[in-house]
Amino acid sequence: IVTVRTIGMNQMAEPVLSYVRWVMVNKRTESAPASPGATPSLQANVIPSQLVLPGELDFSNYDFEQAGSPHAFEDYRTGEKIDHVDGVTVEEAEHQLATRLYQNTARVHFDALAQASSRFGKRLIYGGVAISLARALAFNGLGNAALMLAINAGRHVNPLFAGDTLYAWSEVLDTADLGAAGALRLRLVATKNKPCPDFPFKNQAGEYDPAVVLDFDYWAAIPKRVD
User: Fold this and answer.
1) DSSP-assigned letters across all residues of 33-72
2) Which residue intervals of the chain are DSSP H helices?
């Protein structure tokens, strides 16, 4: 496992994106010892003062009726949990198409013959597909929190396969007033083949429910209610 920081710059050499992730890297020699660990010290999450709203963002005339959701920043409370209710079954062809669009070419997602002899015996669904589908499901309850401002953390807890049905729920971890808009810090939890009216997550020992496939912590912008 290698810790990598990636920084994206615009055409004016201004940083527009910075993130840290863990990357699995194949060994040249399987028996070779790993180098000494050097885990970097990172802040637990992006704090509200670090959040940046796009300069062109204007929620002053936001139409909640046309958006299809009546809920504004003021309607959410820290600790609130939202069952997104709907489920979506992931099909073999669509997850491969999405993975190609993400420009991911890993054979674990595509080569059925090779994966037949793997520990799972079949192709894995790329984690980006799980995140995308779970975020789409979150529209039911978070329809106006459409702009992602920052990702605090994320973990693919269990594998997802074609034929599995994905469900999701969210918890409001924090709220912040950014002036022109509000921001919600949200935990998005996705499960496979298990609806979420009871918000499956972890047991008292801190172990994930076997149905949980994604634990995703992020900030999203949401319009405030204009009096």
Assistant:
1) PPPPP-PPP--SS--GGG----TT---TT--HHHHT----
2) 64-67, 92-101, 112-115, 127-137, 139-142
Half-sphere exposure of 175 (CA within 13 A, CB side): 19
Any residues with CB less than 8 A from the CB of 59 and at least 6 apart, and which? 180, 181, 223, 224
Q: What domains are defined for the chain?
A: 54-222 (3.10.129.10)
CA dist., res. 195 & res. 17, Å (int): 34
Under a CB-based contact definition with an 8 Å cutoff, are residues 92 and 77 in contact?
Answer: no
pLDDT of residue 111: 83
CA-CA distance, 143 to 72, in Å (whole number)?
Answer: 9
Nearest Cα to Cα of residue 142 among 70, 88, 199, 191: 70
What global pTM score does this model have? 0.89
**For residue 192, how many other CB atoms are within 10 A of its CB?**
23
**Residue 37 pLDDT more than 80?**
no
